[in-house]
Design a protein that fits this description.
four-stranded antiparallel beta sheet; mainly beta; 120 residues; single chain
């Protein structure tokens, strides 16, 4: 059973960088054909896919966030991370990490989510 767990600060000041880590257990982030995504849900809004890192380390981003988002990984810890720079209150959301299967791009495993609030 694959499990994902997000971790990071729950409060970030405007203009700072939001940093979150997803720790994966029960499966390797380097396993062929799996991609690892960050997804968020602002209050009262739908889910927004932010970006992903592949089993080989390639990264992909939503065009709306590409200039501010960065996804990396630490294979020795079986973790992947999100950094979102120059945050504003509009970045307040529940942030999720998830595993994507290919083909089909289905998120089959999710973390429980972590609330991040951007406020001074």
């Amino acid at each position: 059973q694959v499990q994902l767990q997000e971790s990071g600060p729950g409060l970030v000041k405007p203009s700072q960088t939001l940093s979150l880590t997803c720790t994966v257990s029960g499966g390797s982030i380097t396993t062929n054909s799996y991609y690892w995504s960050w997804i968020r849900q602002p209050p009262g809004k739908g889910l927004e896919w932010m970006g992903a890192i592949s089993y080989s380390g390639s990264t992909y981003y939503s065009p709306s966030l590409k200039s501010r988002a960065s996804i990396s990984r630490d294979t020795s810890k079986n973790q992947f991370a999100l950094q979102l720079s120059v945050v504003t209150p509009e970045d307040t959301a529940v942030y999720y990490c998830a595993r994507n299967t290919v083909p089909g791009w289905i998120q089959d495993y999710w973390g429980q989510g972590t609330q991040v609030t951007v406020s001074s």
